[in-house]
Amino acid sequence: MSKNPTSHTPIDVGDGAAIPNKNDAGLFTAWRIAFFGAIFVSLYLAFGKSDPYYEIFKFVPDGILVTFKVTLGAILLATCIGLITGLGRISGNRFINGAASLYVEVIRGIPLLVQIFYIYYALGRFVKIPDMLSAIIAMAVCYGAYMGEVFRAGIQSIPKGQMEAALSLGMSRGQAMRQVILPQAFKVVLPPIGNEFIALLKDSSLVSILAVSDLLRRGREYASETFSYFETYTVIALIYLVMTLFFSKLIGIMEERLNAGK
Questions:
Q1: DSSP for 148-179?
Q2: Could you give the CA distance from residue 214 to residue 70 in angstroms, rounded to a whole number?
Q3: For position 231, what pLDDT does the model report?
Q4: Could you say which DSSP state residue 208 is in?
Q5: Cis peptide before 5 (omega within 30 of 0)
Q6: Which residue has the higher pLDDT, 238 or 123?
Q7: How many CB atoms lie within 10 A of CB 120?
Q8: pTM, to two decimals
């Protein structure tokens, strides 16, 4: 059984900030210019321009925490849904394969905002659940379809000889999948999962239409009270930019460490 399975084709299906890699080692990389530029502008506005920017920066931190909670909860649930969907998409069982494929096709064909509304009000007709949980479920259901394709591509990128070798050693298909295929596939799908996380972080702003006080909603509340729309949304944009760039760098570091362990 080969210890180096990777004649893998890189997978890139996200639309978030580009994940930096070791080739971006120059002093003035696009990431550094954008990240430190956003921090510098934020500090200048908060302490150099003072009102109303300083007050806005004091008003929105609660929304940042809520945005993180929604994003983290949704990505964890979406990863579980995606793994199940991906396994279903490669299943030889026609019913399971068909059900997984139908889920992917239906969800990907409906805008995320419509799904958020639908799940929020549909669930609300049958059971009362907290607004944030409803938002997390809606985001996870939508991103689970995309993650399913990520896992399907990641699993199929592992050479078939890996499965055949595991079966020849006496493993069942389930054991081979758990102990041989999935550990290798996880390294392949980590970058696209990172991209999905960053995209989800940005799309989490859509839950502000519900009664969830995320970052954007906190900004809308401040702007509606003070009519400082330009200043408020400038601050909101800078905070989102810093967050997405920070996590893109963090994911890039994780990816390099995983690759170093191959």
A1: HHHHHHHHHTS-HHHHHHHHHTT--HHHHIII
A2: 8
A3: 92
A4: G
A5: no
A6: 238
A7: 20
A8: 0.81
